């Protein structure tokens, strides 16, 4: 149990990876764990898409970058890669007909990040999946992939083995993060 708590507390976003692609075995462990995230009414509204093809990841990276706000885009290096040269890209979608879909998908992403960390794989949530799959281009892609249009984008996760010189940025937690109401009432 202590090791579970330690894993949860020592997870950090990893944006610098070794060249080695996440193994099938590690990937399957992470994805299976992801499917055990709680979902509203147990309806399992999310869908997890997995891409390890470099050309497709590059195309989605360019697409993702197009949704950056202009003022932020201006500040970025010319060759900025929103997926940080990952060789494994996960996209989590969720069925918009289920009222808890955003929460369900977010918990799935949490499980992916925590499960990955527990077995030595680094990961980071990358945003703008909602914008991607709300677009016409996104709807067309869903059709090609055989996924109903009612699925919305929740987030991407980039996965990889952390680079040797990866240094986690440790941010102190806010003092007022937790409020014990019994002490106030
Ligand atoms: C909803 C959400 C969206 C995020 N989007 C991005 C993103 O687009 N790009 C990125 O590099 N990191 C993104 N992150 C990662 C956060 O920047 C990171 O979790 C935060 O700085 C805290 O660091 P930690 O994960 O190491 O604790 C996102 C995280 C969350 C939860």
TrEMBL record:
What GO MF annotations does this protein's record show? oxidoreductase activity
RNA-binding listed as a keyword: no
Where is each Nitroreductase domain found?
8-161
Tell me which UniProt keywords the record has, alphabetically: Oxidoreductase
List the PANTHER family hit by this protein, alphabetically.
NAD(P)H NITROREDUCTASE YDGI-RELATED, NADH DEHYDROGENASE_NAD(P)H NITROREDUCTASE XCC3605-RELATED
Its family remark reads: Belongs to the nitroreductase family.
Question: Would you tell me the protein name for this molecule?
Answer: Predicted nitroreductase
